[in-house]
Amino acid sequence: SHIRHAWDPTKSVAQNLAEMGLSEDPNKALPIPRKKLLGMEVESDGRGQGKKIVRKPYVVNEMEYEASLPEKKSNTLSRDLIDYVRYMIQKHGENYKEMAQDEKNYYQDTPKQIKKKINVYKNFYPEEYKDFVASLKQEKMDVQ
Fold first, then answer.
1. What are the residue boundaries of the structural domains of the chain, listed by start?
2. pTM, whole model, 2 decimals?
3. What rounded mean pLDDT belongs to the chain?
């Protein structure tokens, strides 16, 4: 978005990027040093590096700042998976073999696969899981 706002449509891509302090060709920005390959010397193309004037340094500064921000964790589970796990726990408790034979096991998960899904739910939402299990125990106590 920073580049889009600083872009001048009357100029070429190379001119726009140069004004922002960016490079259109990464090979020119970070040239590979000459090396000797099997006794032969690799020649450079002979183009001189001219002094470049950066007229819009704020673009690079804003992009560097944005890149330095920590990434937000957006790990969540789908609502379907949460409902599936809660239904299985509510109906079968910790009996994974019964869960595998349940009619709501549409994907025909094995007991180990169901256990993994429940563990993923426990890891993503530990507080919600504890509250859910506590409410199930409370329901059982009320019924008895």
1. 1-68, 79-143
2. 0.50
3. 83
